[in-house]
Design goal:
Elements: E1 6-11, H1 15-30, E2 34-39, H2 43-46, H3 63-71, E3 76-80, E4 92-96, E5 105-108, E6 123-125, H4 129-138, E7 143-145, H5 151-184, H6 201-206, H7 210-216, E8 226-230, H8 231-236, E9 245-247, E10 262-267, H9 270-279, H10 282-298, E11 306-313, E12 316-324, E13 331-339, H11 343-371
Parallel strand pairs: 1-2, 1-3, 6-7, 6-8
Antiparallel strand pairs: 3-10, 4-10, 5-8, 5-9, 11-12, 12-13
Helix pairs in contact: 5-7, 10-11
């Protein structure tokens, strides 16, 4: 069967980024395009010990992919929408916004408990200033600790302490069982329900998932009671069944602008139009356009504790905005129905009003804290 040509797509090298690129590639291949995925390691990937908001302005994971597009090395690049800067490059366009995944955050714990059920003073891992502020606004008693790494790495850090403790308990049980077997000349049956074990430690390890086996070997610097991740990242990484989590309502814990959405950038022209026709999801584009216009109007980038979430409902985009100070003690919170036929202009007007209501001051203070 003849193909319509080859499309070269740049992506970051993480497992999640490759999976996202594969989703785009699959959609193109269903329309008889051949796709070559080109892996690019960005500066943001290399600075693994830096917090996201310390990597510079929004776009730390984006610019180097788009440079490959501008140079002609690739035809397009696949990004997480929430990583993209609002200021664009003249020669590039957002050719396509595929259908958005769930935009909400998720609270992950070893036992799948809700935020209200975490113990007093629980340690929660996130490197997002927005998530930190939202958590502290709801639970001021929490200890928020930095957390970086790929999705699987972060989940391993959450699971590691409990799994490592259980391994030691099982090893101790193995030693006790061995001693009794030597004395009594026979092996006793052991039951998990009775606090003992039917399997040896090695048999137990063999039965664990790959993720949990990796967690057993991970060095533990901080013992997290919970961590917060985007549900879309968990799902796209294929880890939704690997750990228990509770969804955080996106109207209460408003997600980052563009969270859950992908963006395909390309040079303006025929290929961009083709990508738009094959991949673009109009509802997702309208919602994320509102979110990004508000982000641009408020000017927070990745340095401000700010959430923006739009949902297309009939003739309006129902839009929720939260802007906090660093510790979630002060905030500007608002929602508005923005008419679809003029959603870009309406979003700018809404953003200007929020800035006047105090959002600009909170964002300026966040910038001073990060830069100073």
């Amino acid at each position: 069967m003849r193909t319509r040509g080859t499309v070269r797509l740049a992506t970051r090298g993480s497992a999640l980024a490759r999976r996202q690129a594969d989703l785009v590639a699959d959609a193109l291949e269903r329309r008889r395009y051949e796709v070559e995925v080109v892996i690019v390691e960005t500066t943001g990937d290399q600075l693994r010990d830096e917090l996201i908001h310390r990597l510079g302005k929004t776009g730390a994971f984006v610019r180097e992919l788009d440079e490959r597009v501008l140079s002609g090395e690739v035809d397009g690049a696949v990004h997480s929408m929430k990583d993209m800067p609002t200021e664009g490059t003249e020669e590039l366009v957002t050719a396509a916004v595929p259908e958005r995944a769930r935009p909400n955050d998720a609270l992950l714990t070893p036992g799948g408990v809700a935020l209200a059920e975490l113990p007093d003073g629980a340690t929660v891992g996130t490197s997002s200033l927005r998530r930190r502020a939202q958590l502290l606004a709801e639970r001021p008693d929490l200890e928020i600790e930095p957390l970086r790494g790929n999705v699987d790495t972060r989940i391993e850090k959450l699971l590691a302490p409990g799994l490592q403790v259980e391994r030691e308990h099982r090893r101790e049980a193995d030693r006790e069982q061995g001693g009794r077997s030597d004395e009594e000349g026979e092996s006793e049956s052991r039951s998990d329900e009775e606090g003992e074990y039917e399997r040896t430690t090695e048999e137990w390890i063999e039965g664990l998932s790959e993720l949990r086996r990796a967690a057993l070997d991970r060095e533990v610097d901080v013992e997290y009671d919970a961590i917060v991740l985007a549900e879309a990242g968990i799902t796209r990484a294929g880890l939704a069944d690997a750990v228990e989590y509770v969804r955080l309502p996106p109207t209460e814990f408003v997600p980052a602008p563009g969270q859950g959405a992908l963006a395909v950038t390309a040079r303006e022209g025929e290929l961009a139009e083709t990508l738009n026709g094959v991949l673009d999801h109009p509802r997702s584009r309208a919602e994320t356009t509102v979110e990004r216009v508000l982000l641009d109007e408020l000017g927070g980038g990745c340095i401000a504790p700010m959430g923006i979430y739009g949902v297309l409902q009939g003739e309006y985009v129902r839009t929720n905005v939260q802007v906090f100070d660093r510790d979630g003690e002060e905030s500007v919170v608002a929602s508005r129905d923005l008419p679809v036929e003029r959603h870009t202009g309406a979003a700018r007007e809404f953003g200007a009003e929020l800035a006047d209501r105090g959002a600009a001051a909170l964002i300026a203070e966040a910038r001073r804290e990060v830069e100073g």
